[in-house]
Specification:
alpha+beta; Nitrilase/N-carbamoyl-D-aminoacid amidohydrolase; 7-stranded mixed beta sheet; 6-stranded mixed beta sheet; 5 helices
Length: 280
């Protein structure tokens, strides 16, 4: 079993401006600095935080991982503030574009690189499919990374596989969107994610953090929809620890002080730990 230590998680529910990586990286840098100043050891950013989910500019603006300019900026921030950073990025690899995510250590090294496996069918023309899963063992614990719809792959196979691989915390950059006429009062957002996060968290006694962006979707198959936040943290007892505000303007940072229980992935009998959470 891997010894794991208490740490502060920051979930950055940021505005992502479609097709504007320079503005998004400036905003991310500001929010990363704020989270680090407030004591975060691990910071998570949303899915495709550089250009926005399914925005067609990805074909021209996607950068290589780990050596492209976008990933380099995230690595620099991790190094400057001496934090772990997980970010969703659009990735260029030859002629292919991937919906990817990286986990970067405080020295600025990419220690985990994930390409989304369970992309929605409407995005298949834009993003190529990943073909593997990884976990990263650190002094804070064992981290797995998935991206958004990976969580509801049939049988929850992605998150359950990460649990079997020993993850104590699964980080999931997301872009959660609703139709323009969605009524939050009649149909509160988040049931889909709770239904898929909670049983896995409970069965494997791990944390799952889904971090969404906010803002409009201005191009691509979901033009006119809005990303609305509701970033979510579920604990190892399967209960919701926190959910961020809903809304296209609901930019915020959530914090949670976490102590993952030491666990052996072969045995699902670890003790349950709690987390203290707060929101800016």
């Amino acid at each position: 079993m891997t010894q794991q230590h208490s740490f502060t998680l920051a979930m950055i529910q940021m505005l992502v401006e479609p097709g504007n990586p320079a503005a998004n990286l400036r905003r991310a840098a500001m929010l990363i600095a704020r989270a680090a100043h407030n004591g975060a050891h691990l910071i998570v950013l949303p899915e495709t935080m550089d250009v926005g989910w399914t925005h067609p500019s990805a074909t021209a603006l996607a950068q290589p991982v780990p050596d492209g300019q976008t990933c380099a900026a995230i690595k620099d921030a991790a190094r400057e503030y001496h934090v772990y950073l997980c970010a969703g990025l659009t990735e260029r690899d030859g002629h292919a574009v991937y919906n990817s995510a990286v986990l970067i250590d405080p020295a600025g090294s990419v220690i985990l690189h994930h390409r989304k496996l369970n992309e929605l069918e409407i995005a298949h023309d834009l993003y190529a499919q990943g073909d593997r899963l990884h976990v990263a063992k650190t002094e804070l614990g064992v981290f797995g990374v998935m991206i958004c719809a990976d969580a509801f792959a049939p049988g929850q196979v992605v998150s359950r596989t990460l649990g079997l691989m020993g993850a104590s915390v699964i980080l999931s950059p997301c872009a959660w969107a609703v139709e323009p006429d969605h009524d939050q009062q009649k149909n509160p957002y988040g049931r889909l994610w709770l239904d898929n996060y909670q049983p896995v968290a409970r069965d494997f006694h791990l944390f799952i953090a889904g971090v969404s962006n906010v803002g409009p979707i201005t191009a691509g198959p979901w033009t006119g929809r809005h990303c609305i936040g509701c970033s979510l943290l579920v604990g190892p007892d399967g209960n919701q620890i926190l959910m961020a505000p809903y809304g296209r303007d609901a930019e915020t940072i959530l914090y949670a002080d976490i102590t993952p229980p030491p666990r052996d992935p072969r045995h699902h009998n670890s003790s349950i730990n709690s987390a203290y959470s707060r929101c800016e």
